[in-house]
Amino acid sequence: MPLRLFYSDLYTIPLPPGHKFPMPKYRALREALSGDPRFEFQPSPLASADEIELAHDPSYVRRFLEGQLTVAEIRRIGFPWSEALVQRTLASAGGTLAATRRAWEFGCSGALAGGTHHAFYAEGSGFCVFNDIAIGILALREAGKIQRAAVVDLDVHQGDGTAAIFNDDPDVFTFSMHGERNFPLRKQRSRRDVPLADGVGDDEYLRILERELPAVFAFEPEAIFYQAGVDVLRTDRLGRLALTHAGVRARDAMVLQACFDRRIPVVITIGGGYSDPIEPTVEGHASTFRTAAAILSNHP
Ligand SMILES: [Zn+2]
Fold first, then answer.
1. Pairing mode, if any, of strands 39-43 and 3-7?
2. C-alpha dihedral sign at 73, 77, 83, 89
């Protein structure tokens, strides 16, 4: 069965000249994967306000949707507010939510966006408006499908919003392995944080991940949300680490194989990637899904 991935043309929005966010990566990722029979693509539905409010302050949700955020709130998010940003944000959360429901039924699914882990309960930050992973976890729980979930966040930036949202929740294991000196400067406390020094490369990274991952599975999560950011690549403008594409493939394989071996449903979101030019980032995101498809094909 092909691996179902959720995508939307709404992910790409116009930004002011000189804006640093690599908006073209979404379409390029979709194009990189299209034509591969191991994948099937479905349009991301738009998340509803009710779904988003599973993880967020209703006032914050409403003010964002209506364009009523303060200048400071908008600045912290890092995108100018627009109706297109609203649509992009709803499609992004909706894609992860659809992938969550699909993964619950069929073991694995992914969104060609998402992993917006800097979004807190009542505010956005770092290009993240709503926390799609938190919404996905709480939707599964609300539907009575799971009690315990884990987040494996391997983006180079700490999953600070996710950590804060689940700070007091004993049933969600937040795992974040990230650059110690990278954004956000003020870290939150995940259930397990693994800070990395600048310049860490493949061998050291994989050794540390192999040592740390068992704690995630010892928690016995009933669903896993994988934030597979590729800003760990050495080509990344923001990353400060030094992974190669082979290193990212080995990383993804380690996480996904462990999920599949234990038959734990896994939802894949892309997270960050800021190589300039953007090609290595797109290749990194694409390889995450190819790795998932390759392992799945050995798991009937
Ligand atoms: Zn990142």
1. parallel
2. negative
Cα of 299 from ligand 1 centre, angstroms:
30
Q: How far is the CA of 199 from the centre of ligand 1 (A)?
A: 16
Domain ranges of the chain: 3-14+23-296
Which residues are known catalytic residues?
A: 118
The verdict on whether omega for the bond into residue 184 sits within 30 degrees of 0, i.e. cis, is: yes
Q: pLDDT tens across 231-249, in order? A: 999 999 999 999 999 999 9
Phi/psi for 234 (5° steps) reads -70, -20
- CB burial of residue 247 (10 Å; 0-12, 13-18, 19+): buried
Strand partners, 149: 172, 223
CATH topology of domain 3-14+23-296: Arginase; Chain A (3.40.800)
Judge contact between 95 and 7, C-beta under 8 A.
Answer: yes
Q: Which of 205, 257, 196 is nearest to 226 (CA)?
A: 257
The distance from CA 180 to its chain's CA centroid, rounded to whole angstroms, is: 19
β-sheet bridge partners, residue 179: 196
What pLDDT was estimated at residue 300?
60
Residue 281 in contact with residue 236, Cβ under 8 Å? yes
Give tens-digit pLDDT for 277-294. 999 999 999 999 999 999
pLDDT in tens, 136-162: 999 999 999 999 999 999 999 999 999
User: Six-digit token pair at 158?
Assistant: 């700490």
Q: How far apart are CA 78 and CA 22, in angstroms?
A: 13
Dist. CA 218 → ligand 1 center (Å): 26
Taking the centre of ligand 1 as the mean of its atom positions, its distance from the CA of residue 270, in whole angstroms, is: 10
CA of 14: how far to CAs of 10, 18, 20, 81, 215, in Å? Answer: 10, 11, 12, 11, 42
